[in-house]
Design brief:
Distance between the termini: 25 Å
Strand content: under 5%
Number of strands: 0
Helix content: over 70%
Structural class: mainly alpha
Shape: elongated
Radius of gyration: 19 Å
Number of helices: 10
Order of helices and strands: HHHHHHHHHH
């Protein structure tokens, strides 16, 4: 990695490290935060949902948790667990809806360039990779609530004789409207925090 490219990234990483460690320790990597946060997401989402009977019953909640865990395991560990067709559609749309995390992408690009150059990751890089995987697993509940809203609204729309395309669009809107998406905050706040 050329010095002019890596040097500003390294300075930025050093400047945001204390805030990132604090935020990660208090929320993302704190399993004790995850369950209450999931419950709060469920309650808030149920209040907002126009079709809570479809989006928030035990069946919908189990669906969101089960399919999201399969997706997370595939993403984190590189496995190939089969997702339900509706979950596949949700994650396909999610990739286009969520803005990319530029700070994280720069880091991954640098790591990939080093790997292609034959350089082994440093102990710090291996620690960060492990930390990211742990963050991804713990924070996956954010997507479980969104996915269950998507599935519930999709089924409700089909029951109302909408076409598949209309049902997918209604589900996409409900999954975004009924739950908070912290990933959608601005790029500057992602770099700062």
């Amino acid at each position: 990695c050329a010095l002019p490219i890596c040097f500003p990234v390294t300075i930025a990483q050093l400047l945001v490290l204390p805030a990132r460690v604090l935020r990660t320790g208090a929320t993302t990597a704190n399993v004790a935060f995850t369950l209450p946060n999931y419950i709060a997401d469920q309650i808030g989402s149920a209040v907002i949902s126009k079709n809570a009977l479809y989006t928030h019953g035990p069946k919908a909640m189990w669906y969101g948790i089960k399919e999201n865990m399969k997706y997370t395991i595939n993403d984190v560990f590189g496995t190939k667990l089969k997702l339900d067709d509706v979950a596949e559609e949700f994650y396909r749309l999610e990739r286009y809806t969520s803005s990319p995390n530029l700070y994280r992408n720069i880091g991954r690009a640098s790591e990939e360039a080093a790997r292609l150059a034959g350089l082994k990751p440093t102990a710090w890089q291996r620690t960060k990779q492990f930390g990211r995987k742990f963050e991804d697993i713990v924070s996956s509940t954010e997507y479980a609530t969104r996915l269950q809203n998507f599935k519930g609204q999709y089924e409700k729309a089909l029951n109302n004789n909408m076409t598949h395309e209309q049902a997918i669009e209604a589900a996409r809107i409900a999954s975004r409207t009924n739950s908070v998406d912290f990933i959608q905050r601005g790029e500057l706040s992602k770099m700062i925090s």
